[in-house]
Amino acid sequence: MIKNYLKLTFRSLWKKKTFVTINVLGLAISIACCIVAYLNYDYDASFDVEHTNKENIYRLNSLRNFQGRITKHGIIPRPLGALAAENVSDFDKVANYINPNEKFRIEDELFNTNIVFTEPSFFEIFTFERAQGQLDITENANIVISDELAQKYFGDEDPLGKVVTQVLDSGVRDYKVAGIFKKKPQNSSFGGVEAFASFENYYLTDPERKKDDWTRWTTTFALLTDNSRIPAIENQLNEYISLQNEAREDFQITNFYLDPLVGMASRASSDDVSGWTWQAMHPMAVIAPAIMAGLLLLLACFNFTNTSIAMAGSRLKEIGLRKVMGGIRLQLIRQFMLESLVLCFISLILGVIIAELLVPAYAQLWEFDLQLVYSENLGLFGFLGGMLVLTGLLAGSYPAFYISKFEPVTILKGTQKFGGTSPFTKVLLTGQLIIALLAIIASISFIQNAKYQKEFDMGYKGDGIIHVAFDNYDEYEVYKNAAVNDGRIISTTGSQDQLFEAYRNDPIRFEDHQEEVDILKVDENYLETMNIRLAEGRNFVKDSETDIKESILVTKELVKRFKWDNPIGKRLVWADTVQLFVVGVIDDVYTRSLWNPLEPMILRMSAKEDYRFLTVNTRPSEVVEVNEYLEAKWKEIFPDRLYTGEYINLEVTSANNVNKNIVTMFTFLGLVATILSVSGLFTLVSLHILKKLKEVAVRKVLGASVSSVVLKLNKQFFIIMLIAIVISSTISYFMIGGLMSSIWAYHVELGAFVFLTSGLVFLLISTLTVGTKVYSAAASNPVNSLRNE
Fold first, then answer.
1. Alpha helices in 532-596 (DSSP H)
2. How many C-alpha atoms does 133 have within 13 Å on its Cβ side?
3. Can you tell me the distance from the alpha carbon of 371 to that of 373, in angstroms, rounded to the nearest whole number?
4. Which residues pair with 519 in a beta bridge?
5. Residue pLDDT, tens place only, 223-249
6. Which residue, among 148, 43, 661, has the nearest Cα to 370 in the 3D structure?
7. Mean model confidence pLDDT for the chain
8. How far apart are alpha carbons 778 and 789 in whole angstroms?
9. 716 CB contacts (<8 Å, ≥6 apart)?
10. What is 738-764 written as a DSSP string?
11. What crossing angle do the helices spanning 706-743 and 423-454 adopt, rounded to 10°?
């Protein structure tokens, strides 16, 4: 029986091979996109799952409420970790954790790397796979390094017992390699860690660091077996709030709380938890691809169902004869469902092949370690099996269950009509076009947004700017005197702080109103070098002690928040005692790119001995050459140290790259959706024309013109497209606008241009695709059609 079903299935499919091929390819591409979306989701959901104790690991967090604005921080005062380990008996293990980027040397090679200073209990809390030696940092002289770092610097040599030297301002500190661990993947909170050493070394390498300093913060993890004790533990921790708030009057904490490791990386992104570098993807980076892939799959299934219904008219006699010969409805349902499953299975195989190409391309866009691995991946096989069943049911259920119920008498008499463009197929077609238009509108919207953000006035122009960091003023002065005498350098500035690199965020008060502001200490050349516009008042005066002591420049955002009409001369209070006077107003500077809302900023004049950054301005066309020149000078002056120069526009460049990748992704999805919907429209129109050939011939014999016939054939499809444009424009206004708002604080507003352009583009593509087919039918010789009839 199965053999007979399969024979009938392939015979039926072969008769309509053109339309079947279109359906299979469309479904295969959609399945490939769904596989990418699944792997993207699985990558994010797999953050930190490798730890044996993951359900019992917590990070000690702090919460701050500043004027109704609640902020979460993944760090606590450094002394609190030791107090928690000593006094909170419910904790099984506690480990302080700090992750600076430090300079190291192995033999003659200098490099920067992420090292973690932590307690030996860290390896009892978290699971790290040992590759060689022992993960032992009980001795201060021990260091544990990743297998990648060992391979890079030791090659095939045995790294155990080798010396790794930390390069410090005050000298060097040697460590002995005690063990090698397998580096964590990117979807891990410790994905960038290359080395571990004892937490004591953090204090030994800098005598100014004190264990009882409540003004300094660190990350602290704890292992807790009895989760029911969390409220009691948090109450114990909150007893130390007064010590923290006395030490930092400028940074008052509301309470401490425990943050579970499970989901921690995702919350760091969604809840904007500061103080923790490794975050999972933005929620929309998971949700948006999944929604778009799901819509593409739905579109392909609509295509499949529509085509099956449209082709059903040619199989009515087959159904009638099979019923007359004793066939029962269940057999017909099995036949139609088998046809559907066979096509879906072929599509699934092709989809996996296409996914082999799409996955690396997607991973390259976002620099993910995303791979299509089949071995030991039960989740993927379950997903693929679910896809097969889902697509089979979505695509084949309606034709199978509806067509099989027809009575043989009505079929054989010719009174039973089915196929073509029924109300149901029109609804499905409208759904297809809506999905395609949503994808097109999204593509055009994100292209427009990328252009908007690229041209957005960030308050400074960083295309030709390089900054170099120093440990102290003496280094700054030596380097500046040697390096800045180059004709390609337009201007230079010295500063204690720098955009995107180093600045503080503190509360500042005007009368009874308090605001948190970014504070940068700079010199009198900072505005000129950074291309920041002075809107009102004056700049700092060179060597002015008064300006160093009390003068500030403020951004327009701060003027707006304090509701000043005349800001010049206004007195502000910082740190409760320091009085500052506004001497100038500058344009707003977006220090957090366009992801987050603008924060107000003040510039203070820095004393020369506090300079830690040299910033140079050059022509954008010469910035690479100037950077190479600055690096060469650095190597002459500091031969034993790594060059610290960076392009200041890296943050903006990174944001532009994200925009570019989003545009690429949505353009691809829009293109696929358009091809699927137009191919579905082409199939439906073609089958509709086949059904209408006799009517077309009769109309032409009776004198109808080609144009009137074309209009008659196209009318209902044109109305469907107009309905789809209206519905998709309404949905996308809210959906795409909401998506952009969840990603960026500042983005383009969707306007009529986007919707009109999208509608016209789709109408043009659809008309060109089906117009030839319709015209060919309308212009054909009616004699041929009537002779066939």
1. 545-550, 556-562
2. 22
3. 6
4. 504, 602
5. 999 989 999 999 999 999 998 888 887
6. 43
7. 85
8. 17
9. 421, 426
10. HHHHHH-SS-PPP-HHHHHHHHHHHHH
11. 50
The dihedrals phi and psi of 56, each to the nearest 5 degrees, come to -120, 10
DSSP H/E element including 736: helix 706-743
Are the C-beta atoms of residues 759 and 672 closer than 8 Å to each other? Answer: no
Instruction: Provide Rg for the chain, Cα atoms.
Output: 34
pTM: 0.83
Could you give the 3-state DSSP secondary structure of residue 195? strand
pLDDT, one tens digit per residue, over 325-345 is 666 667 777 777 777 788 888
pLDDT for the residue numbered 7:
59
Tokens representing 363 are: 């991973």
Distance of alpha carbon 280 from alpha carbon 186, whole angstroms: 9
Please check the confidence at residue 700 and state whether its pLDDT lies above 60: no
Q: Hey, what are 562's tokens?
A: 């304090």
Contacts of 53 (CB under 8 A, 6+ apart): 125, 126, 127, 223
What are residue 117's phi and psi, to 5 degrees?
-95, 120
pLDDT for res 583:
97
Band the pLDDT of 569: cuts 50, 70, 90.
very high
CB 398 within 8 A of CB 272: no
Burial class (CB in 10 A: 0-12, 13-18, 19+), 229: middle
Task: Check if the beta carbon of residue 518 is closer than 8 Å to that of residue 591.
Answer: yes
Could you tell me which of 190, 213, 193 has the C-alpha nearest to residue 203?
Answer: 213
Structure tokens at 594: 């366009």
pLDDT of residue 108: 84
DSSP element (H, E) containing 493: strand 489-495
Residue 693 has pLDDT above 70, yes or no: no
Contacts of 646 (CB under 8 A, 6+ apart): 466, 467, 468, 501
Contact 626, 489 (CB under 8 A): yes
Lookup: tokens for 379: 């989740």
Q: How many CB atoms lie within 10 A of CB 104?
A: 24
Domain chopping of the chain, boundaries: 1-47+280-286+326-412, 54-264, 420-459+652-789, 465-651
Q: What is the pLDDT of residues 162-200, one digit of tens each?
A: 999 998 877 889 999 999 999 999 889 998 899 999 999
Strand partners, 221: 59, 95
Dist CA 746 CA 763 (whole Å): 31
Yes or no: say if 108 and 95 are a contact pair by the CB < 8 Å rule. no
Report the DSSP beta bridge partners of residue 579: 573
Instruction: Give me 240's structure tokens.
Output: 């130390």
Tens digit of each residue's pLDDT (9 = 90 or more) over 59-69: 999 998 877 77
Q: What single string gives the DSSP state of each residue in 377-427?
A: -HHHHHHHHHHHHHHHHHHHHHHHHHHTT--HHHHHHT-----SS-HHHHH
8 A C-beta contact, residue 697 and residue 709: no
**Contact criterion met (CB below 8 Å) for 260 and 49:** no
Quick one: CA torsion of 748, 753, 758, 761, rounded to 10 degrees? -130
Instruction: Please report the pLDDT score of residue 592 as a whole number.
Output: 79
Alpha helices in 259-282 (DSSP H): 264-270
Q: Pick from 34, 27, 673: which is nearest to 396 by CA? A: 27
| CA geometry: angle 709, 713, 714, nearest 5 deg | 115
Residue 359: closest CA among 377, 386, 340: 377
The pLDDT of residue 746 is above 70: yes
Residue 562, CB half-sphere, CA atoms under 13 Å: how many? 26
